[in-house]
Amino acid sequence: MGTIYDLAKMTGFSITTVSKALNNYSDVSEKTKAKIVQAAAEMGYLPNAHAQSLSTKRSWTIGVMFSEAHGVGMMHPFFNAIIESFRKATEQQGYDLIFASRNLRNRDMSYLEHFRHRAVDGIVVICSDQMDQHVQELIQSTIPIVVVDMDSADCSVVYSDNITGGTLAINHLHELGHRLIAHIAGDTSTDAGRARIEGYQQAMEQLDLPIPDGYLVNGGFFSGEEGKRAMNELLALPERPTAVFVAGDEMAIGAIEAIHEAGLQIPEDISVVGYDDIYVAKYITPKLTTVRQDTETIGQHAASVLIEQIVNKKRVTTRDVIPVNLMVRQSTGPVPE
Amino acid sequence: MGTIYDLAKMTGFSITTVSKALNNYSDVSEKTKAKIVQAAAEMGYLPNAHAQSLSTKRSWTIGVMFSEAHGVGMMHPFFNAIIESFRKATEQQGYDLIFASRNLRNRDMSYLEHFRHRAVDGIVVICSDQMDQHVQELIQSTIPIVVVDMDSADCSVVYSDNITGGTLAINHLHELGHRLIAHIAGDTSTDAGRARIEGYQQAMEQLDLPIPDGYLVNGGFFSGEEGKRAMNELLALPERPTAVFVAGDEMAIGAIEAIHEAGLQIPEDISVVGYDDIYVAKYITPKLTTVRQDTETIGQHAASVLIEQIVNKKRVTTRDVIPVNLMVRQSTGPVPE
DNA sequence: CATTTCACCGAAAGCGCTTTCGATAAATTT
DNA sequence: AAATTTATCGAAAGCGCTTTCGGTGAAATG
Lengths: 337, 337
Prior knowledge:
CATH class of the largest domain in chain A: Alpha Beta
InterPro entries (chains A, B): HTH_LacI, LacI/GalR-like_sensor, Lambda_DNA-bd_dom_sf, Peripla_BP_I
Shape of chain A: elongated
CATH architecture of the largest domain in chain A: 3-Layer(aba) Sandwich
Helix content of chain A: 40-55%
GO molecular function, one term (chains A, B): DNA binding
Oligomer: homodimer
Keywords (chains A, B): DNA-binding, Repressor, Transcription, Transcription regulation
Number of helices of chain A: 12
Structural class of chain A: alpha/beta
Protein name (chains A, B): LacI family DNA-binding transcriptional regulator
Strand content of chain A: 15-25%
């Protein structure tokens, strides 16, 4: 503890000089700089971030907002991996992350209001719901922002190449001989959900494969429960698919459960390919074939495009589509005879 | 945007009165309060948090530190679930969470220093490594603190009843007829790892079961890889266990993979019980029997004990041990003949 | 030697807010 | 009617820091 005044008294210099010394101004002699820096170290002096922010109008904080749309909060492994990567990248530049709520001492307020209150330097939002009012409000504001996993023309975005992801999965299944390929989709209110459907449809058309009625089933918001339910719908179909492309790994794991409960084998009876490549994907039985999203680069790119805006004090709107790749493991195999 | 000065000018009152009105002081008439509040709403006025903190010495922020010991960061599902619950509880009281790094504009500093710099009101640390220097430094400081998943005599702690968790698992296996029960342990540098070993050993002794050489194998830091490796060691033993208690779910999933690769069935040949009950536990094949940690209550309790300290401006040292319970699913079954 | 330049330092204002304390006018009491 | 209380407001100091701008003495220049 101790303020800049204490340091000034201790060293005999004015607070002006102390501040300059600490900030490495050129109009302070090396000798006094050294004295001051050492004294600071001795007394364990640390500048008060609030005072600094107040006077510089720069807080070195980045506000993060998770879409709480479906109560996943910060628990979804995919979102999480991204934020972790984002955090590493931004902390290297000296920024701290702040998770703001919509509650300011029991006063209800929007995220934008809260972020303005906290005077964050920039905002990262991880959200897949186009319609989220709070997100739209953030996007329309003047604060530097980057949004992940969603598209928008009004701000910088970074997300996976989900269309290619879909085609990758379908082509892989096609090469294994599958012709009856279903898709358990993410909700169409999400960009990711829609793009993967798009990829599925494009690939099927390209391959001249029909999409039978009921082969495109909505799996909702990527949960295990919904994946299971959706798979059961597929299993009840008159012409059962031999392969299914699932728009999320947790959903895929739910689907696998359904398949097993129906007494069927994977991949002998049905092949399944997931999406995301969450941590456990390669450990479960059968090891999950899945489209891997590069959370590492997504986080890094998001960080750099945000920081660039902050540094240049200028909002930009870029679109950064990150490649995905297929991890072939053991949940897919040749089509059954 | 706009400051309190603008509001003052706009309403014709002094900034003193404006501030008081906004903070609901009693020496401002209801009439002028109403005027000011409305004007504030009209111009979208929001108080600057930094200025407030500077003058009140209260920042309404809580610093969170994850033990980065083994590079898991905020990605581990168990830690994550806790933080999510903690976040919900604290945000209801008006606090924001800040994830600080050890990097302050390319100056290296400790977490304590960083938190002091940011002037957080309290700290939550989620860590299992007793020896972490940074954590010890935090604990010895004067800032209100709560640590999760670790024991300490010098601060408030909240963690699961891991000893009971261990005995729960062993007793369950014993009831199923198992006598050859091994344990893939978490590293003994972690409290959780040690306590679960303790529970294992206590239960085995209680049941008069010997622990053969090699039946207690270190699984390191709870990763899938290490679980797999440890399981392979067990499989190579002259007398193979019929059941294994694994100190973490991800580790258990790795162990399951090893068992399957050895051509053995679960639970027919070997039963396995995990620890944590992570999200996917109930979806994988076979559905994992596991000791469930109550992340919800852990987070809530951590929040309330921290906030209590903040409000009372007085550090307390409490120990809050949260009960666990066994989720019996399909990875455990009767001992093979 | 007079003048300009340069290196180094500090006074002071300002960032946006809270809070103490005193001032004033109105209301109440004697 | 005088004295006291009450209700309402504002001046000013302070929170800890940055930054502009001016000042001083020493060194460099003519």
